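[Solved] Which block belongs to which protein?

Original post:
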Amino acid sequence: MQALEQEIKELLIAALNLEDITPDDIDPTAALFNEGLALDSIDALELGLALQKRYGLSLSADAEDTRRHFSSIRTLSMLVADKRTQ
């Protein structure tokens, strides 16, 4: 799971052009929005598109479900891992 978390951190940095952040700067359990990395809805959209392209994910139309998956790098990793096994 750590390798996948690292991969998603790198994807997040590349997709959002976060030049001042390295993968090691991102705590996998830290919030991606608000008090964590302080991402916004546009960032979420860009990250969602990057995840779709890279992993073939189709994101839920259910806003609550999407919020839960996008809460941290760890939850995104669990989503990708789950989709890979289906």
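(Second protein starts here: sequence line, then its structure tokens.)
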Amino acid sequence: MFTILAILAALVLYVVFIYNGLVKSRQMAEEAWSGIDVQLKRRADLIPNLIETVKGYAGHEKSTLEEVVALRNKAQAVPAGDVEGRAVAEGLLGQALGRVIALAEAYPDLKANQNFLELQRSLETIEGEIQMSRRYYNGAARDLNVKVESFPSNLVAGQFGFAKKPYFEIANEADRAVPTVKF
């Protein structure tokens, strides 16, 4: 009888250990997604200033500027938990931002404007931080996904409703490139 109780206690402790590991992994993935969201918000907040600066020099590039604003609004409208939708929207926004930065080549006065240069440096820094946050999130999602799919933790995960997290990936290869700036 004591042996059976000891085995049951060990089994319960093992399930608790696995459950707590799954909770920790899920929380790490959610915290990592929050990091991406913060960086994307910083980029979105920078865009209006960048657009206004460019407008002063390249007012007739209105369609490009309007496209960036529209894509920014679309990216911000994606629901918080929709990782795939956010990746697509942010990829399109990144492409459009690259086109705005490329406008500086056609406007030497814009390229020399101190405000534009500061905004450009800030955007480059934020893009790098987004990339680091994306890697961190994908690592946390990977760790959770391994636990959700591997035996025996998959038994506990299925029982308690733990699900895989999607990776924050950009489908279009051209979207993966950080906008390059040349002087």
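Accepted answer:
You had them paired correctly. Confirming on the second one: The chain has a mean pLDDT of 86.
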